[in-house]
């Protein structure tokens, strides 16, 4: 079977001296906390929408439908466009904000974009915690979305630029790890606040979003900017100092020279948005659009958004549903560590392919289990043991995502862009991700009502498509310096046709084998 070129030694033509230092570890850890904002919100929004007190105050129609109509189709209990607008309004705001974040990130640096995002998120958390009506609730969500748009775009760039090539995967996945920790923390908080007497526990859940926002806001003030950003903005001496500190060696001339060359090229480009449409950037632009598109169509965010609601649908009570969401959140965190410790050893493709096959099997199994119990009508009761079986397979599905498409998809995109289009490219990635997060979140409850159990087959079909995409079109990027990445695309059996020899030479000087395109090999796991 023809497939994407697996290039294991692209970076062998150029290695930069250096090691993992405590400085680079701590700065990357702080930048990665930007993921807490998104993760906490994903977990908290699904939990509060399963709390009776929250539904009574803001969405009484949904509450009456759930409680009063005992014969209601199990698939359609929670179908409310106003309710889903509460969840998904954040992602439209993040989509728009990420485009503005691109300019701030490029002109003022990565750290100030993170600071801006954290500050706006703080205001949104305060509004949500004090919300008195739906309008106030959604305005707060929009501010949260703006904060997520800024922090996600800038934190990802920061991580990929600070990390040494040999450990870029591990350090970059720190952002995804923080997302999973945010989700787990939110699930635990929801489980406790749902038990608060007086019906105000949801306020605590929403207001506590200020905690991760305060961490990234305060922490960003102490972060140095990346050498790439400093050179791009004309601060060469400061960039040289930072590079020595984060690499733990004075032998930085080779890496500094390559970053400097990339910076000069970037400074010569006044409009990166126009440049990114050029033919030679077709591979990176394609990945910037398709990878986040595929990520959302795995169905993972609907599982995380609506886990308590979904578990209610398959037979758990309110508190038991929240506890089941805590379990899936814990699986999400633990499985992410698998990718942290393996991505720089086995590579990106192997994890994406294995995870894709695992998710596909679980989607088909969960859909079938729900079909057997509820059928087309959606009527029926489910035993605790049967519901537990559904949760087990959902956990296997979450694990498959957490060590593959969750962290690795974002990693592959972030490390593919040259400096000249990196800020614009990551803005596109974040925007596409938020657009389809919004679309899937907005449509999920309606799709569950109309497609019923086949919704899981729908997502499974997309997992099959994206796994095939990895086989044919995604080269291995493990261990390749950022300034050399164009050589990977030039060597690929398909993408090489878009990149001229001159462009490949400008992007990197090392060769692959005898300089010819790598042949399309068979599928390897």
Automatic annotation (TrEMBL):
Stored Gene3D superfamilies: MFS general substrate transporter like domains
Localization per record: Membrane
Entry GO terms, CC: membrane
Domain Major facilitator superfamily (MFS) profile: 27-478
Any Pfam family hit: Sugar_tr
Membrane topology of this protein: Multi-pass membrane protein
Family, similarity comment: Belongs to the major facilitator superfamily. Sugar transporter (TC 2.A.1.1) family.
Name of the protein described by the UniProt record: Major facilitator superfamily (MFS) profile domain-containing protein
